[in-house]
Amino acid sequence: MMSFLKGFERPSKKQFIYLLIFRIINAYLLRTYYAADEYWQSTEIAHNDVFGYGYKSWEWTREAPLRSPLYVFIFSTMYNILKYTSLDFPILVAYLPKLIAATQAATFDYFLLKIVYVYFGQTHVLPAMILHLTNWYSLFAIPRLIFNVLEMTLFAITLYFYKLSISKNFKTFDYISRIVATINFIAKPTSIIPLTLIWPYRLFTMPGKIKDKIEYFFLNVFTVLVMIVSSLLVDVLYYKRFTWTVYNFFEFNFLEAGSSLYGTHHKFWYVTECIPYLLLGSVVFFAIGLVKYVSDQLNKRAGLDLIIFMIYFILVLSLSAHKEDRFLLPLWPLFMLFTCYGCVQLKSSRYLKYLLFISIISNIGLFAFMGIHHQRGAFSVVDSLRQQGDRVKSVYFFTECHQTPYYSFVHKNIYMDFPDCKPENRIKGSDSSKLFKYPQEFIKNIIESQNPSHIIILNHFTRDQNVAKILEKHRYQKIAEHGHAMFIDSPIGTINDVTMILMEKQDLQK
């Protein structure tokens, strides 16, 4: 076993295969819902583009769209292959994208280990792998379809070749780094945030003649111009009109503060709550690593570039009132660098094995809860809906908006609907809020106006006797019920012991 693990001290293609197998198992083991963007900004958009029916969320349909189509192209390619080979079976359409997620995760794992190797050497690679692959958030978030994972993966590749270009003094590595950074910018504009410091930092600290600095400056300018033109071209080709999602995104989220409609946190949330929550038991190693790294770099009269990059990125993200844990994913390589650095500093300490035990047990325990148990009903109930086949004519989801996968999991051209929560509706009170605040009136109006053949509804509503009478009057019968969560947040506060129920109109059973 030890000889197998030691093989990871110098990352190779063979190790990538092992990482890929691990992430495939990890991806298919995940049975819980995380962020709505995981499906509603990836496979749902691709499904609509390829199969000609589905749903595009407001970010894609507004006059000034916010999303670049580049990430969606990956899933569109997969769906096109299934479509033109007549292999677009609903089960494959629903679950084959997990292979993309697993491949993306394994690619990140591989380059993370390579980053650790080029920064700290092979003695740190194995601790980094163990701490990374036993971290609950790594297991929970990284093998998913959220575009933040692509941003993180491409940034890791960018950082790796950036470091090589300095240590090897080889321009080709710098060009590779810039090409990957450009792709990342097209897919996720926020990926440029760390580069707005990394490139100027390199410019002012690089050795050599003034001619070299001028050349590097104009190379940065040229790269940014290529980024802008490329992203603009992709947007115009996809949306078939002149629009630039980079500016639209900046305008909506920062100038108009539109993202604050989807939740806010205080300015220091990333530091005081988010990072400790993500690292959990290994936060001790992270803290020790930070302190020791600063001390060692100062003693060597070396730069503190990694620390500066991390602080800068967090400060920029903290300017927005809307904060989410997944927004820190691009910093994951730096988190793991400092975490493994702190772990290695304790290699001769008698407390190391206890700290490792606490770290691994706490992380695996939280992953078991978050990755397998919490919010698991979102997939199970839609699986049950898909299995009803041609019996399903129309569906309404009496849940908060975007709380389950949608057409990409049903793969059937039928009418489906859910409570609307577009930004303009959130200002005056979204349908989601109305559903939870006035469930009897809302459910009655939907059933009488839409008459869906099937509904998916939270047991929180069916516990209400008046709602139960409405469902009984309109002949809805429960055909499946799936445990969902011990608790969920809602517009009216926390709801406990939540299940998701699939109901069918009784007259369909004749």
Automatic annotation (TrEMBL):
Membrane topology qualifier: Multi-pass membrane protein
Location(s) in or outside the cell: Endoplasmic reticulum membrane
Annotated transmembrane regions: 16-34, 70-87, 99-120, 140-162, 216-239, 268-291, 303-321, 327-344, 351-372
Enzyme class, UniProt record, top EC level: transferase
Main location per the UniProt record: endoplasmic reticulum
Stored Pfam families: Glyco_transf_22
GO cellular component: endoplasmic reticulum membrane
One Gene Ontology MF term: alpha-1,2-mannosyltransferase activity
Entry keyword annotation includes Transferase: yes
GO BP of this protein: GPI anchor biosynthetic process
UniProt KW keywords: Endoplasmic reticulum, Glycosyltransferase, Membrane, Transferase, Transmembrane, Transmembrane helix
Family of the protein in this entry: Belongs to the glycosyltransferase 22 family.
Name this protein carries in UniProt: Mannosyltransferase
Natural source organism: Tetrahymena thermophila (strain SB210)
